[in-house]
Structures are given as structure tokens and as C-alpha cells.
Amino acid sequence: MKIIAVIPARYASTRFPAKLMQDLCGKTVILRTYEAAVNTQLFDDVFVVTDSDLIFNEINLNGGKAIMSIKEHESGSDRIAEAVENMAVDVVINVQGDEPFIDKKPLEQLIEVFKNDTDKKVDLGSLMFQIKDKKEISNPNNVKVITDQKGFALYFSRSVIPFPREENVGVRYMKHIGIYAFRKQALMDFYSLPMLSLEASEKLEQLRYLEYGKRIKMIETTHGSIGIDTVEDLEKARKLLA
After folding, report:
1. Whole-angstrom Cα distance, residue 185 to residue 53?
2. Rounded mean pLDDT of the chain?
3. At what angle do helices 76-84 and 184-192 cross, to 10 degrees?
4. Which among 6, 15, 157, 169 is least surrounded, fewest beta carbons within 10 Å?
5. CB-based contact 241:24 (threshold 8 Å)
6. How many CB atoms lie within 10 A of CB 211?
């Protein structure tokens, strides 16, 4: 089974433009993320795929592997699909470009999902962890996920799900970490299918998979990695490294 990691890297982030090229204690955010993915030693290869000459050069000039997107893309999955379309791979791990503190263990768990899935019932795997603070739960920047009893995703939302009409029933609120593992075929199916209303409304690409009947296996982790979505997040990351 050939497994690669691909890091989609848009330059023009909506909430924090050029965040991937920001300095994070002597190296850019995207370079730290790339090096963290390589250092796990879990992958047969690691690539950054980008629409930006700056990011492309940043990775290549530091000894990494970068691919330029040919087309404009609405989502990271689309960008990755274009990059791997002609590659002979089985599983593709999507590592977010703004996640420089990658932990090896949950990535190993994602890979094990596919190694153990002999019946090929899993199309994608992804990560989640429990959050308890009410502000964190209500924050629309934190994507929440609910699952069935076997750990397959039922829905993802920026809203509070489930809604706490009754608070004393033992509901756990799970935050989605945007690291995915795809079977290549599921990724290519996604690439060929149009966006539907749920994805368009929430601006969450994972909903396209659910809308078209793909099965997403969620793995719970205790590792709530620091994603850099805002200037405040970047400052937290700098303090953590320092």
C-alpha cells in the first residue's frame, strides 16, 4: 500500500491572508508544516501543492517537493486531486498547511484504518477531539462533528451540534481536525462531482463527501493541534515554540 501526504497551500486565506508565509520562530508556517510531515517518517512521499509562486519556491528552495496547481480550486480536496490524478498511490493523507504541530500518533491511527479495512468500507478517515469550553463549542471557526455508534461521521457544522435542548444527557462535543486520509478513488470521485447546497452553505468540503454517500471514519485523539487561522493563533504558536 503506497501512502503519501499532500499539503494544500493557498496563499490568499480569507481570515488571515498570507498566513502560510508568516514567520514562525525563524521558519515560515508552511515550511514547518512540511518538515513536520516529513519527520513523522510515515509516508512514501510528501508534497506541497499550491497556487502561489512564493510558497512553491519556499518549499523547493529548502529542499522540499512542491507542485503548482494548474487550475483554480474551491477546496483543498480539489487541489490535491489534481496533483495526484496521475500518481500510482493507494491512500493520500491531506495535511493542512496551517498545522505545523503535527503529532505522529493520530496519523498512524488514520493509516491503520485503511490497513485494517479489508472490505474497503471506509472512503475517508479523519480526526476529532473533545472540547468542553462553551466558547470553544459555539465558535464557528471550530468545526464540530457528530458520529454514529461505529464512529462514522453523520454531519459536520460550524454551528453547535447537537443543539443542547437537554443538557444532562451525556453529549460530548467533538471538534474536527482538518487532517484527512482518502482512498484515491474517493478523492477522484469528489473531484468529478459538483458542489451541493450543504457544502456551499457551511463552506466545508467534507460535506460533499457525505452528500454523495461517502463514508468518513472518525478517529478520536487527545491531540488538539494548533491550527493557525488568526493572528492570535500565530502568537500562540510562537509562544509554544519559544
Report:
1. 29
2. 92
3. 110
4. 169
5. yes
6. 14
Amino acid at 2: K
Residue with cell 463527501: 209
The DSSP H or E segment spanning 29 is: helix 29-39
Mean pLDDT of 74-95: 91
How confident is the model over 139-143, as a mean pLDDT? 94
β partners of residue 7 = 48
CATH H superfamily, domain 3-241: Spore Coat Polysaccharide Biosynthesis Protein SpsA; Chain A (3.90.550.10)
Q: What is the CA radius of gyration of the chain?
A: 17
Q: For the chain, list the strands marked E by DSSP.
A: 3-9, 23-24, 27-28, 45-50, 66-68, 91-94, 124-131, 144-147, 153-157, 173-183, 216-220
pLDDT tens profile 164-223:
988 878 899 999 988 899 999 999 999 999 999 999 999 999 999 999 999 999 999 986
Q: What is the C-alpha to C-alpha distance for residues 5 and 94, in angstroms, rounded to an integer?
A: 6
Residue whose C-alpha cell reads 498547511 in the numeric block:
97
pTM of the model: 0.85
